[in-house]
Design brief:
Blueprint (H helix, E strand, L loop, with lengths): L2 E3 L8 H6 L10 H18 L5 E2 L5 H12 L3 E6 L2 H12 L3 E6 L8 H10 L4 E5 L1 E2 L4 E2 L2 H11 L4 E5 L18 E5 L11 E5 L1 H7 L11 H8 L10 H17 L1 H21 L3 E2 L10 E5 L6 H9 L3 E5 L8 E5 L6 H17 L1
Parallel strand pairs: 1-13, 3-4, 3-5, 5-8, 8-9
Antiparallel strand pairs: 2-10, 6-7, 9-10, 11-12, 12-14, 13-14
Bound molecules: pyridoxal-5'-phosphate.
The site of pyridoxal-5'-phosphate (PLP) has 11 residues, from helix 3.
């Protein structure tokens, strides 16, 4: 079986793909609403929240837009250390928000002290943090960052993009006091693209009541009105919900802690293999992603040629993102990727390096 090691979309198990072929039914029906209620209940376990999880049509970027549009009238602090946190900042600015930048270099984490200093200078309604920067393989210290916000500016809402981590690394939404946690279907949840999910706290919804121009499609209050009736304001992605239902059962059967441990073990294997072969992860120790390893290309590997070689064997990795192209490469180990896939990939990689 071919296997993708790119950081989304990832491979989808055949039984999950198959679930999408269920015949259509009215979405405003008890039959569909029962499934929808069930997927939310299971998602709450994966998000570690007891509040609510929205399951709207749209990819993750739509929920980036929902977050900034609903949860701040004006002042946002955007933590930026890679392409997707930069995108979230642009989303805020293009929605007319006054978004300030707290930056760290690409490849470096956002550190709690820097966040603390920014929060002491100005009062923000919301702070946006990308948990796992897919562009650099850096995982930001989310729990510590959340603690800083709670201590210094307790009214500031904490908005988190967990697109490439939720379901692969533990995010304790309620325990860490996060207000808005979003993800997409096509990464650690190992579903086809097309859906987003967002856990939203009660106080975030209260805040939304005070925010003007929330729009229609991504209005969290409208989504909530329909969620409590087990539906969405717009037509839901029914086929994807059926797939989600099957996939969440599989994830919960594996056990979330076991799933997180599997991702951590694969990350350790890839990152130590890189060091053993004269390369190293871009991220500093302690901030290395468990779902996507970004490796400095210190051996000058021709990534396009490597991928051609790998594709003949049914595998594919990702080049570095943006300016990091060819300087780095990325090996994703998320979703249903297992250690034997990683072993096969690294064996092939090694053969390629030996031939160089
Ligand atoms: C961290 C992060 N945020 C946001 C996005 C955008 O998500 P989507 O493509 O589902 O809109 C991505 C996509 O790769 C991502 O990795």
């Amino acid at each position: 079986m071919p296997h993708l090691f790119i950081p989304g979309p990832v491979d989808v198990d055949p039984d999950v793909m198959e679930a999408q072929t269920n015949p259509m039914m009215p979405h405003r029906s008890a039959e569909f609403e029962t499934i929808f209620r069930g997927t939310e209940a299971k998602l709450k376990q994966v998000f570690f929240t007891e509040s609510r999880v929205f399951q709207p049509p749209s990819s993750g970027t739509g929920m980036q837009e929902a977050g900034v549009r609903n949860l701040a009238q004006q002042d946002i602090l955007s933590c930026i250390n890679g392409a997707f946190s930069e995108r979230w900042h642009q989303v805020a600015v293009t929605n007319g928000k006054q978004a300030d930048r707290l930056e760290a270099a690409w490849g470096e984490p956002i550190l709690p002290d820097a966040l603390a200093a920014a929060l002491k200078q100005k009062k923000y309604e919301a702070v946006t943090i990308v948990h796992n920067e897919t562009s650099t393989g850096v995982v930001n210290p989310l729990e510590e960052l959340a603690t800083v916000v709670h201590e210094i500016s307790p009214d500031t809402l904490i908005l988190v993009d967990a697109v490439s981590s939720l379901g692969g690394m533990k995010i304790d939404t309620d325990g860490w006091g996060l207000d808005f946690v979003l993800t997409s279907s096509q990464k650690c949840l190992a579903l086809p693209p097309g859906m987003s999910f967002a856990a939203v706290s009660d106080r975030a919804l209260k805040k939304a009541e005070t925010v003007e121009n929330r729009g229609w499609y991504f209005d969290l209050l409208r989504l909530e009105k329909h969620r409590i009736k087990n539906s969405t304001p717009m037509t839901p992605t029914m086929s994807l919900i059926w797939a989600l239902d099957v996939q969440l059962d599989k994830m919960l059967a594996e056990g979330l802690e076991a799933r997180f441990a599997r991702h951590a073990a694969m990350a350790e294997r890839v990152q130590s293999w890189a060091v053993d072969h004269g390369m190293e992860p871009l991220a500093p120790e302690g901030y290395r992603s468990k779902t996507v390893s970004t490796i400095k290309n210190l051996r000058g590997v021709d990534i396009a040629a490597l991928n051609k070689f790998l594709m003949d064997k049914g595998m594919r990795i990702a080049n570095g993102y943006g300016n990091l192209k060819n300087e780095t490469f990325r090996i994703a180990h998320m979703g249903e990727t297992r250690m034997h896939h990683i072993d096969e990939l690294l064996d092939a990689f090694e053969t390629f390096i030996e031939k160089m």
